[in-house]
Amino acid sequence: MNKKLSKDAYGGIAGKDYVPYISSGSKSGGNAAVLTIGIILAVLFAASTAYSGMKSGLTVAAGIPGSIIGSVFIAIFAKQKGILGKNLVQGMSSGGESIASGMIFVLPAIILIGSKVSFFEGFVVGVGGVLFGIGVASLVYNYLIVEEHGKLMYPESMAISETLVASEGAKESVKYMGIGFGIGGIITVFTSSFLNVANNVISYVNESFYKWKFEVEANPLLLGIGFIVGIDVSLTMFAGSILSNFAVTPLIGYFVSLGKGGATVWNNSHVALNAMQVKHIAGSYVKYIGAGMMLSGGFIGAIKLIPTIVSSIKETLGVKSSKGSGSSSAENLILFGGIIIGFIGGFMISGGNILMAITASILSLVLSLLFVIVAGRLTGTIGTSNLPVSGMTIASIVIVTLLFVTMGWKNPGNNRSLLLFGTFIVTAISAAGGYCQSQKVTFIVGGDKNEMQKYFAIAGIVGAAVVTGVIMLLSSQLAMTGDNVPFALPQANLMSTLTGGIMSGSLPWVMIIVGIVMGFTLFLLKLPVMTIAIGFYLPISTNAIILIGAFVRLFVEKTSKTEKQKEARVSNGVSLSSGLVAGGSIIGLVGIILQVTNVIKIGEPSGFAASNGMGYVILAALIIASIIPIMKSKEKNAK
Questions:
Q1: Which of 3, 122, 496, 528 is most exposed by smallest CB count within 10 Å?
Q2: Residue-wise pLDDT tens digits, 29-39
Q3: Tens digits of residue pLDDT in 236-286
Q4: Which residue would you say has higher pLDDT here, 434 or 331?
Q5: How many beta carbons lie within 10 A of that of residue 109, not counting itself?
Q6: Contact partners, residue 562, CB within 8 Å, separation at least 6
Q7: Structural contact between residues 384 and 78, judged by C-beta atoms closer than 8 angstroms
Q8: Are the C-beta atoms of residues 137 and 376 closer than 8 Å to each other?
Q9: DSSP-assigned states of every residue in 434-487
Q10: What one-character-per-residue DSSP string does 75-126 give?
Q11: 23 to each of 26, 144, 635, how far by Cα in Å?
Q12: Cα 467 to chain center, whole Å?
């Protein structure tokens, strides 16, 4: 057996002729131990992604960290299953993460509109989306994975495959993930997410003639995300924050300060226009401009997908069935299960409105079918981390909203139903992306595609339960408004603003249109609209620490003397950063559980512990504690 993938794994040969890494013997990698490990990691990554994604607006793909952690656990508990067992575990890790990445876009919006969702409703809608996404993606498996081998590169799948093949080095990566988890966990325990005995936000606000705000949150999970996504994305997001906090906010503040009379803020009659503080400008005006920018970015992304949609459907329909490409009974069962559960969920969430249940369910299934195929193809081109889920979801939500408005279903209860239909759609899209990525890895290493399908479906169902539970647990914090809310929820805020505003007719269209025009201008300048828009919308404290994380990576790269040393440091840095994200989010979630159950009482920092000085101390400790292990890794890894 070779210790690396053959060049044929990357193309140059027809998919039907490709010889996988494991080319003989049993194709099964599963047993009770593998399934148990996979479920544990699916829970871990679903909870971590839900927490960190709602806080930052960004999510981290779980395939590579899942393969690293899984390699160690498989070596301990199921060594005989080898790389095929490790593959199933990474697939289940991706399953939990991808479902969370989708559901947090829409489901929390129900809380933001002042409504409630039961665990059963969220779970049923999520499971329906999972099964339908997997089922439809399975129908086009042969086209996407086999026939397009070498044409659709599946970059993240190839990286995961290489990680699995080189899994003898997994213990080193797990060590760095453990260090990161420890750093993230310790800092989180003492800050606002847990005991809240030390301030970790450095804040400067100017309320005079030129109104502005600059903040940095010394948060380990956000620094880890910054290291992973790199300098380009981080700088682009921070550019959005600069535009928001140092251009638009001061400009609005200047003009309203000239106002006379008793005019008040449009959505807050208790605040006079000429007396607005920075937080009022941000919450009542800048927020909606940012929503318009994200809406513009979503529609531009959806329009750019039209050629891909057309070609994907044409090529999919034109592909002739080849040997071994027929649908299995399991595939059909999963697909029909998704359709049936989708309709059951539709009737359950429609409040007894049979016409709504039927029409909205059919429309949701059609839109999901369309975008699942697109998601599978785009995953093969740009990977799941860059999958334009936002754009596809916004386009779908707007179409469903227009149906509701046309039918006269405009009250808050109807909006709640609409958002649950949207949750089904976004979950199907996200599940399909993660599923296609995992199936490509299975094809490359030589596993059983039907086995991966079953294990991924189990992980997806587990992920739907975990994410719904996390959202319900955090519901009181997600509903908070005003300055310094604990969870930014940029995508969910957009969904609630968009649907609620269209249905009630109260959308502040001037600000939305300004944001749309700004987004279109960025598009004409060939700039990444959605990335800048999310940066514009998110608190500058979030974007600043993400940028610092990217600067840490840049420092590590620039101080490396050789290419091998840089590669080793960055690899260990990504592992450590994955640990920071996991530690910060999981320990933060544990802290909230302990607070809700009254096991611990949240404190209130005072004196120096409440000052900017403490924020600087925590930030410096976080940066130093993250850099030192990465820099020390050079002697062992550089060759």
A1: 3
A2: 889 999 999 99
A3: 999 999 999 999 999 999 998 887 777 888 878 888 888 899 988 988 899
A4: 434
A5: 31
A6: 638
A7: no
A8: yes
A9: HHHHHHHHHHHHT--HHHHHHHHHHHHHHHHHHHHHHHHHTHHHHT--STT-S-
A10: HHH-GGGHHHHHHHHHHHHHHHHHHHHHHHHHTTHHHHTT----HHHHHHHH
A11: 9, 21, 36
A12: 12
Query: pLDDT band at residue 374, thresholds of 50, 70 and 90?
Result: confident
Distance CA 527, CA 519 (A): 9
The reply to whether 553 falls in a domain is no
**Cβ density class 158-172: b for 16+ within 10 Å, e for less:** bbbbbbbbebeebeb
Residues of the domain holding 151: 29-164+291-490
What's the DSSP call for residue 144? I
Give the burial string for 497-522 (b: 16+ CB within 10 Å, else e). Answer: bbbbbbbeeebbeebbebbbebbbeb
Nearest to 324 by CA among 146, 455, 144, 151: 146
Q: Is 218 helix (H, G, I), strand (E, B) or coil?
A: coil
Mean pLDDT of 123-151: 91
Asked, for residue 227, whether it belongs to a domain, the answer is no
383 vs 440: CA distance, rounded Å: 11
| Residue 312: band (very low, low, confident or very high) from pLDDT cuts 50, 70, 90 | low
Residue 184: partners with Cβ closer than 8 Å, 6 or more residues away: 220, 221, 224, 579, 580, 581, 582, 583, 584, 587
Tokens 């320990």 correspond to 587
Nearest CA-CA partner of 135 in 337, 319, 305? 337
Q: Name the maximum alpha-carbon separation found in the chain.
A: 83
Give the residue from 463, 491, 490, 454 showing the smallest Cα distance to 126: 463
**519 is a domain residue:** no
pTM (2 d.p.) = 0.84
- Nearest 10 degrees: Cα torsion 463, 468, 474, 477: 120
Confidence category of residue 170, pLDDT binned at 50, 70, 90: low
Number of domains in the chain: 1
Tell me, what's the pLDDT at 167?
72
Under a CB-based contact definition with an 8 Å cutoff, are residues 435 and 516 in contact?
A: no
Q: Is residue 250 part of a domain?
A: no
Q: With beta carbons less than 8 A apart as the criterion, state whether 580 and 184 touch.
A: yes
Residue 442 burial (C-beta neighbours within 10 Å; 0-12, 13-18, 19+):
buried
Residue 371, SS3? Answer: helix
Question: Nearest to residue 223, comparing CAs of 542, 505, 615?
Answer: 542
- Report the C-alpha gap between 408 and 379 in whole angstroms: 37
Q: Using the predicted structure, report yes or no on whether residue 287 has a pLDDT greater than 70.
A: yes
Q: Give the CA dihedral 622, 628, 630, 634, nearest 10 degrees.
A: 170
Burial of 38 (0-12, 13-18, 19+ CB in 10 A): buried
pLDDT at residue 324, rounded to an integer: 43
**Residue of 243, 300, 241 lying closest to 488 (CA atoms):** 241
pLDDT higher than threshold 90 for residue 28: no
- Block residue for tokens 């289940």: 92
- Give the model's pLDDT for residue 405: 93
Collapsed DSSP state (helix, strand, coil) of residue 328: coil
Token pair belonging to 120: 């059963």
- The model's pLDDT over 592-632, given as tens digits with 9 standing for 90+, comes to 888 877 788 877 888 999 999 999 999 999 999 999 999 98
